[in-house]
Amino acid sequence: MKVLVVAIERQAREAVAALLREAGFDTAEARDGATALAALGEHRPNVLVCDWILPELFSREVVQRIRDEPEYADFSNLPIVILVDLPDDHVARQFRRVGADALVVKSRNDQAMRRDLLGGIRTAVELRHRAPVPTGGWERG
Length: 141
Fold this sequence. Notes:
With 141 residues, this protein is of the alpha/beta class. It contains five helices and five strands, in the order E-H-E-H-E-H-E-H-E-H. Helix 2 crosses helix 3. The two termini are 17 Å apart.
């Protein structure tokens, strides 16, 4: 399973990608929303993990374009996980309204971040594909 990780801060993007690779995922990275949209066709990800704060093209717009624009029709059912700094019901409602499937609060603790991120991906995939994700093989440790 391939995950496209989108975050402006290189260190954060690389840390999330590393956690996902350790869990058995293939990863690709993008630093902003426009680059992420361009990378969809090239990398053909199975899941998008996107930081909620992006320059120029905001993450909410990225989600909305993927869900609504004919140019991204091949990805309209792509499971999308948004990374947020703090839990916020208002932000959660906004992202769900435009089509995000799961929100994950960033953690400085790698173990908690890995657990929550994998849980968010599992939730997003199950919501989009209306089927449980098989256990084993895609999560290590």
